[in-house]
Amino acid sequence: MNTDVVLAGGGPTGLMLACELRLANVGVTVVDALPERTGESRAGGIHSRTLEVLDQHGVLDRFLDAGDPTPVGHFSGLWLDFDGLESRHPHPLMLLQSVIERLLERWAAELGVEVRWSSEVTGLRQDENGVEVGLATGTTLNARYLVGRDGGRSAVRKLAGIGFPGTPATMTALLGDVRLPDLPEDFIFMRRCPTGHFSAISLEPGWFRMITSEYDHIPGRDEPTTFAMLREALIRLAGTDYGMHSPKWISRFGDAARQADRYRDGRVLLAGDAAHIHYPAGGQGLNIGVQDAVNLDWKLAAAMRRTRCSTATTPNAIPSRNACCTTPARSRHWPGPAPRWTHCAKCSARSWCSTTSTGTCGR
Fold first, then answer.
1. Contact between residue 69 and residue 91 where contact means Cβ atoms under 8 Å apart
2. How many whole angstroms separate alpha carbon 332 and alpha carbon 86?
3. What is the phi/psi pair of residue 287, to 5°?
4. pLDDT of 89 over the 50 cut
5. How high is the pLDDT of residue 363?
6. I need a labelling partner for 27 at 20 to 30 A (CA). Which of 168, 198, 238, 320 fits?
7. Sign (positive/negative) of CA torsion 343, 348, 351, 355?
8. In angstroms, rounded to a whole number, what is the distance separating the alpha carbons of residues 327 and 291?
9. CA 45 to CA 29: how far, in whole Å?
10. Beta carbons within 10 angstroms of residue 266's beta carbon
């Protein structure tokens, strides 16, 4: 074996899973089809549950220092006040995905993780002992497991023959990070119009995330996305472009909703957008993907260590959670000291535990 786990995709889900596995002393190799990190801003925030997870790992301060908490959010355009949430971190953190990825990659590097760029997965073959992963570079990696978190058009999912049923998009949103010198307010949130709605949200000083959503307009899959298209869409909705100029990034997204018909085929597993896609407004895709990683890590680690906690009867079985060890997903709020990696005296497993003086899982 070259490594224990090959992770296809170096985005937030892949990086978080890589860090989790390295904390469990599991060997990890991350491969990505891109030649390098794009720097595109993409998702714009970290939700409360993800903040709790980062806190449990002792790295939250890195993210808090780089972003701004916001006390409110929305559900379908209806304002929500997060002050009443039962959490030490109830307020979402406004932070661009490009910054989140940079911080996660720095943490991963500290744990000995390296991302191999220009390394798209082009083939796979598996048996009861492991999986052979072919890369676009001509390299072949042998591992015990392969995890595809390589986006909605996942090569891993397709190579594994896993279906991706769901519903196609019924609308399209355009978005761009631009300057808006003539915007009359600090921000505009979901201003509804007869044919759609638009928002202008300040994510960085001097820069705005402009989003236009037009109903019943579905562009062709290969249709380009341009600054001119964003400006024209805003004029159609708002009657003005607010002096929009200097775009840093232009993209589009829709409301297609799909879910893999299974998340696992033998030693091949899926997480993040490779497993499920949906309307991504509010950074939901990034946050669900990170929590996918946290949920999957302890199962993979326990399966490979084949500890007494594992219910596995074969090498490729993924165990259910044992009775005595706890994981971050079990509780929304940890009272007292932050949990840490430890060995449980009852079962000898190394996991996230809130320990008592006896060294056993105290929760």
1. yes
2. 8
3. -70, -40
4. yes
5. 31
6. 320
7. negative
8. 12
9. 27
10. 15
**pLDDT for 12-25, tens place per residue?**
999 999 999 999 99
What are 322's two structure tokens?
């044992």
Is residue 238 within 8 A of residue 185, CB to CB? The reply is no
How far is Cα 282 from Cα 189, in angstroms, rounded to an integer? Answer: 12
pLDDT at 279: 87
CA distance between the termini of the chain: 37
Q: Residue 306 has what pLDDT?
A: 67
How far lies 117's CA from each of 69, 121, 217, in Å? 32, 11, 35
User: In the chain, what percentage of residues exceed pLDDT 90?
Assistant: 62
Contact 363, 339 (CB under 8 A): no
Residue 266 CB contacts under 8 Å (≥ 6 apart), including other chains: 126, 131, 316
Highest mean pLDDT among 152-156, 194-198, 322-326, 341-345: 152-156
Q: What is the pLDDT of residues 224-277, one digit of tens each?
A: 899 999 999 999 999 999 999 999 999 998 889 999 999 999 999 999 999 999
* 269 DSSP β-pair partners: 147, 264
* C-beta separation of 27 from 309 below 8 A: no
Question: Rounded to whole angstroms, how far apart are CA atoms 196 and 258?
Answer: 23
